[in-house]
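Hypothesis: this fold can be encoded by more than one sequence.
Test: take the structure tokens below, design a sequence, compare later.
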């Protein structure tokens, strides 16, 4: 495989966008550079009694807003360059969707399949301890979250360890993506996938773009191939299917499946849980080399696994007319340029997968405010709406049934508030970057970078020069 320097890639995209702004070079350099990165090497004891040294990194890319924010991934690809690139993408992503955090990212270089649950727990707790020691975690410092290879369980270990060694009023806000019972928020697990759905749906509502691509407006009947069937891939596929798309291909690390008539996503999830793989799913064609799934005929391709999946080597074989980047950095700049020459719309990662961090922001707000969204006003809203409906009923001849009233007078639950906050965030940000795209006649990715640079630069400009 070609070795791609990921941070350099992100910076090339940045430089291209910076060319459409008038900020001084010094300021642009400050925005671009990764402010801090820490390498941790610590021992853990394996179940067989042996000792292993674990390597982990945490990068804090930008302190223009605090805390810094971003996931922790468990993968063999993790290295210093990768976490810096991913932390930079977090800075830009947060700015694009107006989430008031600097960018951060962490990673542990392990293949999680090779460790038992107790070993993973020891790694995660020890990492948390190391981060506390180096001041690399805290509700007002740096707040990790799930990423590739991590989920609620790891976040539960992190918050428990943090609370036991650094207890404070707001210590629950030291990490997001926690189980609801430990201060998590409803809707966080599916947030990245739901955000991807809202973003793709918004893109497919743009009449001019759809006309240019020779497609109908809306999602109905559009065929979709998704790379990755972990949390992000599964939820993107599920919401796109519910929104009217036909999911024709799914790729995983051990192979891909294809069915032009459509793959039932819930049935596939069940199959994966029961058999530990998607590759034996009945009724679909098995593709041994899962990377080939990227080249399948489809309307929308959603790479939702790892970075640099679409590169110089396969870019010209991609047939999709829309690429919705669910993963971070799935397309190299060389591939981006090859694809751009055709009529293809790339919905960039630094906008499209921002749903996760957006709902993390809501979770963090919940932790700092110590109250569940909807708790104070749900009943009040419901009663007011009921009163209004009953008054309308009195004024008109229309009699509403108990059922109608229940449906219409419904106070918002935490999940309702989270979902509508996320929907609003994704739609607003799409329109912001789409306006920049049209204003400067550039592609959507460059527009997203321009949007981020403008927003971060304004903050630095207002801060002035540090003493
Ligand atoms: N890991 C996710 C991302 O790359 C979520 C980050 C977060 O919630 O802080 O956006």
């Amino acid at each position: 495989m070609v070795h791609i320097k990921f941070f350099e890639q992100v910076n090339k995209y940045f430089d291209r966008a910076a060319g459409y702004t008038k900020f001084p070079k010094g300021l642009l350099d400050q925005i671009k550079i990764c402010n801090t990165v820490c390498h941790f090497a610590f021992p853990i004891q394996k179940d067989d009694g042996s000792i292993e040294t674990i390597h982990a990194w945490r990068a804090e890319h930008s302190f223009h807003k605090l805390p810094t924010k971003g996931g922790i991934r468990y993968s063999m690809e993790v290295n210093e360059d990768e976490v810096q690139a991913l932390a930079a993408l977090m800075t830009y992503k947060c700015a694009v969707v107006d989430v008031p955090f600097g960018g951060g990212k962490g990673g542990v270089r392990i293949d999680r399949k090779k460790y038992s649950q107790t070993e993973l727990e020891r790694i995660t707790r020890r990492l948390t301890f190391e981060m506390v020691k180096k001041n690399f975690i805290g509700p007002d410092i740096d707040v990790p979250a799930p990423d590739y290879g991590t989920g609620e369980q790891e976040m539960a270990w992190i918050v428990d360890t943090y609370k036991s060694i650094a207890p404070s009023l707001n210590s629950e806000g030291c990490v997001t993506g926690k189980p609801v019972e430990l201060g998590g928020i409803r809707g966080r697990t599916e947030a990245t996938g739901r955000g991807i759905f809202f973003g793709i749906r918004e893109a497919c509502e743009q009449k001019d773009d759809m006309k240019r691509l020779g497609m109908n407006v809306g999602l109905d009947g559009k065929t979709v191939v998704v790379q990755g069937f972990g949390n992000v891939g599964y939820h993107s596929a599920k919401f796109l299917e519910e929104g009217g798309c036909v999911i024709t291909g799914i790729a995983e690390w051990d192979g891909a499946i294809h069915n032009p008539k459509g793959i039932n996503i819930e049935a596939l999830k069940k199959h994966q849980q029961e058999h530990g793989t998607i590759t034996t799913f009945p009724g679909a064609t098995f593709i041994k080399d899962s990377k080939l799934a990227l080249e399948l005929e489809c309307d929308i391709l959603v790479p939702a696994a790892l970075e640099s999946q679409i590169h110089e080597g396969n870019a010209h074989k991609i047939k999709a007319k829309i690429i919705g980047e669910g993963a971070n950095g799935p397309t190299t700049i060389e591939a981006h340029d090859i694809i751009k020459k055709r009529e293809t719309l790339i919905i960039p990662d630094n906008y499209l997968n921002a749903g996760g961090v957006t709902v993390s922001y809501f979770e963090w707000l919940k932790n700092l405010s110590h109250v569940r969204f909807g708790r104070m006003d749900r009943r009040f809203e419901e009663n007011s709406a009921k009163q209004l409906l009953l008054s309308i009923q009195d004024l008109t001849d229309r009699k509403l049934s108990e059922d109608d009233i229940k449906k219409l007078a419904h106070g918002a639950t935490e999940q309702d508030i989270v979902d509508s906050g996320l929907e609003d965030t994704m739609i607003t940000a799409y329109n912001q970057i789409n306006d920049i795209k049209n204003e400067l006649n550039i592609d959507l990715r460059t527009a997203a970078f321009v949007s981020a640079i403008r927003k971060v630069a304004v903050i630095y400009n207002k801060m002035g020069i540090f003493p």
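Residues 69-71, 145-147, 176, 328, 353, 356-357, 360 surround glutamic acid (CB under 6 Å). The two ends are 46 Å apart (CA to CA).
Hypothesis status: open.
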